[in-house]
Protein backbone atom coordinates (compact mmCIF):
# COMPACT_ATOMS: atom_id res chain seq x y z
CA UNK A 1 0.00 0.00 0.00
CA UNK A 2 2.91 2.31 0.68
CA UNK A 3 3.83 2.24 -2.98
CA UNK A 4 0.34 2.99 -4.38
CA UNK A 5 0.68 5.76 -6.90
CA UNK A 6 4.38 5.16 -7.49
CA UNK A 7 5.55 3.46 -10.64
CA UNK A 8 5.37 -0.24 -9.98
CA UNK A 9 8.33 -2.51 -10.53
CA UNK A 10 8.32 -5.49 -12.80
CA UNK A 11 5.99 -4.00 -15.43
CA UNK A 12 2.92 -4.14 -13.18
CA UNK A 13 0.09 -1.80 -14.09
CA UNK A 14 -0.05 1.68 -12.52
CA UNK A 15 -3.67 1.88 -11.33
CA UNK A 16 -3.46 5.59 -10.61
CA UNK A 17 -3.37 6.21 -14.37
CA UNK A 18 -6.60 4.31 -15.05
CA UNK A 19 -10.00 5.97 -15.36
CA UNK A 20 -12.71 5.12 -12.85
CA UNK A 21 -14.47 3.28 -15.67
CA UNK A 22 -11.43 1.05 -16.28
CA UNK A 23 -10.97 0.52 -12.54
CA UNK A 24 -14.60 -0.54 -12.15
CA UNK A 25 -14.17 -3.12 -14.93
CA UNK A 26 -11.18 -4.54 -13.07
CA UNK A 27 -13.14 -4.53 -9.80
CA UNK A 28 -15.79 -6.62 -11.58
CA UNK A 29 -13.01 -9.17 -12.21
CA UNK A 30 -12.14 -9.20 -8.48
CA UNK A 31 -9.05 -6.96 -8.69
CA UNK A 32 -8.46 -5.66 -5.15
CA UNK A 33 -5.82 -3.10 -6.18
CA UNK A 34 -8.25 -1.59 -8.67
CA UNK A 35 -10.89 -1.45 -5.93
CA UNK A 36 -8.45 0.30 -3.60
CA UNK A 37 -7.59 2.87 -6.28
CA UNK A 38 -11.27 3.43 -7.10
CA UNK A 39 -11.90 4.01 -3.40
CA UNK A 40 -9.02 6.49 -3.19
CA UNK A 41 -10.32 8.32 -6.28
CA UNK A 42 -13.91 8.63 -5.08
CA UNK A 43 -14.25 8.25 -1.30
CA UNK A 44 -14.25 11.97 -0.43
CA UNK A 45 -16.75 12.81 -3.14
CA UNK A 46 -18.93 9.86 -2.16
CA UNK A 47 -18.82 10.77 1.55
CA UNK A 48 -19.83 14.36 0.81
CA UNK A 49 -22.67 13.19 -1.42
CA UNK A 50 -23.96 10.83 1.29
CA UNK A 51 -23.59 13.53 3.95
CA UNK A 52 -25.61 15.94 1.82
CA UNK A 53 -28.49 13.45 1.98
CA UNK A 54 -28.14 11.96 5.48
CA UNK A 55 -26.87 15.09 7.31
CA UNK A 56 -25.31 12.97 10.09
CA UNK A 57 -21.55 12.24 9.91
CA UNK A 58 -21.61 8.88 11.73
CA UNK A 59 -24.47 7.56 9.61
CA UNK A 60 -22.73 8.88 6.49
CA UNK A 61 -19.55 6.97 7.38
CA UNK A 62 -21.55 3.81 7.98
CA UNK A 63 -23.35 4.15 4.66
CA UNK A 64 -20.06 4.92 2.90
CA UNK A 65 -18.76 1.50 3.99
CA UNK A 66 -21.97 -0.15 2.80
CA UNK A 67 -21.69 1.65 -0.55
CA UNK A 68 -18.20 0.34 -1.23
CA UNK A 69 -19.17 -3.15 -0.12
CA UNK A 70 -22.08 -2.99 -2.56
CA UNK A 71 -19.77 -1.69 -5.32
CA UNK A 72 -17.40 -4.60 -4.69
CA UNK A 73 -20.18 -7.19 -4.82
CA UNK A 74 -22.17 -5.58 -7.67
CA UNK A 75 -19.43 -4.34 -10.00
CA UNK A 76 -20.27 -7.08 -12.51
CA UNK A 77 -23.74 -5.58 -12.97
CA UNK A 78 -22.32 -2.17 -14.01
CA UNK A 79 -23.14 -1.37 -17.63
CA UNK A 80 -20.39 0.75 -19.17
CA UNK A 81 -21.77 4.21 -19.94
CA UNK A 82 -18.72 6.34 -19.22
CA UNK A 83 -20.20 7.52 -15.90
CA UNK A 84 -19.23 5.12 -13.11
CA UNK A 85 -19.63 7.86 -10.47
CA UNK A 86 -23.30 8.26 -11.43
CA UNK A 87 -23.80 4.51 -10.95
CA UNK A 88 -22.02 4.71 -7.57
CA UNK A 89 -24.14 7.71 -6.54
CA UNK A 90 -27.28 5.70 -7.35
CA UNK A 91 -26.11 2.94 -5.01
CA UNK A 92 -25.37 5.53 -2.31
CA UNK A 93 -28.74 7.26 -2.72
CA UNK A 94 -30.60 3.93 -2.47
CA UNK A 95 -28.72 3.01 0.71
CA UNK A 96 -29.45 6.45 2.18
CA UNK A 97 -33.17 5.99 1.54
CA UNK A 98 -33.02 2.54 3.13
CA UNK A 99 -31.44 4.19 6.19
CA UNK A 100 -34.29 6.74 6.32
CA UNK A 101 -36.85 3.92 6.25
CA UNK A 102 -35.02 2.10 9.06
CA UNK A 103 -34.89 5.25 11.17
CA UNK A 104 -38.57 5.94 10.64
CA UNK A 105 -39.41 2.39 11.69
CA UNK A 106 -37.14 2.64 14.76
CA UNK A 107 -38.58 6.01 15.78
CA UNK A 108 -42.12 4.75 16.22
CA UNK A 109 -42.45 5.23 20.00
CA UNK A 110 -45.39 4.12 22.10
CA UNK A 111 -46.91 6.09 24.98
CA UNK A 112 -45.50 3.56 27.46
CA UNK A 113 -41.98 4.45 26.24
CA UNK A 114 -42.59 8.09 27.23
CA UNK A 115 -43.82 7.44 30.75
CA UNK A 116 -40.45 8.15 32.45
CA UNK A 117 -40.00 11.07 34.85
CA UNK A 118 -38.29 14.34 33.91
CA UNK A 119 -34.95 14.87 35.69
CA UNK A 120 -34.44 18.51 34.65
CA UNK A 121 -30.80 17.95 33.68
CA UNK A 122 -29.20 19.81 30.76
CA UNK A 123 -28.79 17.53 27.78
CA UNK A 124 -25.87 18.51 25.56
CA UNK A 125 -27.30 16.49 22.65
CA UNK A 126 -30.42 18.68 22.65
CA UNK A 127 -28.31 21.83 22.91
CA UNK A 128 -26.25 20.71 19.91
CA UNK A 129 -29.39 19.66 18.03
CA UNK A 130 -30.61 23.27 17.99
CA UNK A 131 -27.38 24.39 16.32
CA UNK A 132 -27.60 21.48 13.92
CA UNK A 133 -31.19 22.39 13.00
CA UNK A 134 -30.15 25.97 12.19
CA UNK A 135 -27.30 24.68 10.02
CA UNK A 136 -29.56 22.19 8.22
CA UNK A 137 -32.17 24.89 7.65
CA UNK A 138 -29.48 27.17 6.24
CA UNK A 139 -28.22 24.43 3.92
CA UNK A 140 -31.75 23.74 2.74
CA UNK A 141 -32.04 27.22 1.22
CA UNK A 142 -29.25 26.38 -1.21
CA UNK A 143 -29.76 24.84 -4.61
CA UNK A 144 -28.58 21.22 -4.84
CA UNK A 145 -25.47 22.08 -6.88
CA UNK A 146 -24.53 24.87 -4.44
CA UNK A 147 -25.01 22.62 -1.41
CA UNK A 148 -22.92 19.92 -3.06
CA UNK A 149 -19.98 22.29 -3.66
CA UNK A 150 -20.18 23.73 -0.12
CA UNK A 151 -20.27 20.27 1.49
CA UNK A 152 -17.45 18.94 -0.67
CA UNK A 153 -15.32 21.92 0.34
CA UNK A 154 -16.23 22.15 4.03
CA UNK A 155 -16.97 18.55 5.02
CA UNK A 156 -14.65 16.63 2.73
CA UNK A 157 -11.96 19.31 2.74
CA UNK A 158 -11.64 19.21 -1.03
CA UNK A 159 -10.01 22.09 -2.85
CA UNK A 160 -12.04 23.91 -5.49
CA UNK A 161 -9.94 22.36 -8.29
CA UNK A 162 -10.67 18.88 -6.91
CA UNK A 163 -14.37 19.69 -6.68
CA UNK A 164 -14.43 20.95 -10.27
CA UNK A 165 -12.65 17.81 -11.49
CA UNK A 166 -14.87 15.52 -9.43
CA UNK A 167 -18.10 17.14 -10.65
CA UNK A 168 -16.71 17.60 -14.17
CA UNK A 169 -17.43 21.33 -14.21
CA UNK A 170 -15.13 24.28 -14.93
CA UNK A 171 -13.19 25.67 -11.97
CA UNK A 172 -14.88 29.06 -12.44
CA UNK A 173 -18.30 27.39 -12.11
CA UNK A 174 -17.27 25.63 -8.89
CA UNK A 175 -15.95 28.89 -7.44
CA UNK A 176 -19.05 30.80 -8.52
CA UNK A 177 -21.40 28.24 -6.94
CA UNK A 178 -19.38 28.25 -3.72
CA UNK A 179 -19.28 32.05 -3.44
CA UNK A 180 -22.99 32.40 -4.26
CA UNK A 181 -23.84 29.73 -1.67
CA UNK A 182 -21.69 31.34 1.03
CA UNK A 183 -23.38 34.71 0.47
CA UNK A 184 -26.81 33.07 0.76
CA UNK A 185 -25.77 31.30 3.97
CA UNK A 186 -24.30 34.48 5.43
CA UNK A 187 -27.48 36.44 4.72
CA UNK A 188 -29.68 33.65 6.10
CA UNK A 189 -27.67 33.27 9.31
CA UNK A 190 -27.54 37.05 9.83
CA UNK A 191 -31.35 37.14 9.67
CA UNK A 192 -31.66 34.25 12.12
From TrEMBL:
Source domain of life: Bacteria
SUPFAM superfamilies reported for this sequence: Sigma2 domain of RNA polymerase sigma factors, Sigma3 and sigma4 domains of RNA polymerase sigma factors
One Gene Ontology molecular-function label: DNA binding
Protein name: DNA-directed RNA polymerase sigma-70 factor
Keyword Oxidoreductase among record annotations: no
Keyword vocabulary terms for this entry: DNA-directed RNA polymerase, Sigma factor, Transcription, Transcription regulation
Pfam family, one: Sigma70_r2
Amino acid sequence: MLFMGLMSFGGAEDYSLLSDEALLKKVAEGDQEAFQQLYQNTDRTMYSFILSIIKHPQDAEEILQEVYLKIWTSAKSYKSQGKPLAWMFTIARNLCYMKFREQKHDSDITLEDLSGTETGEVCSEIEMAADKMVLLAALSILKEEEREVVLLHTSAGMKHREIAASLKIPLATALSRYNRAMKKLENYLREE
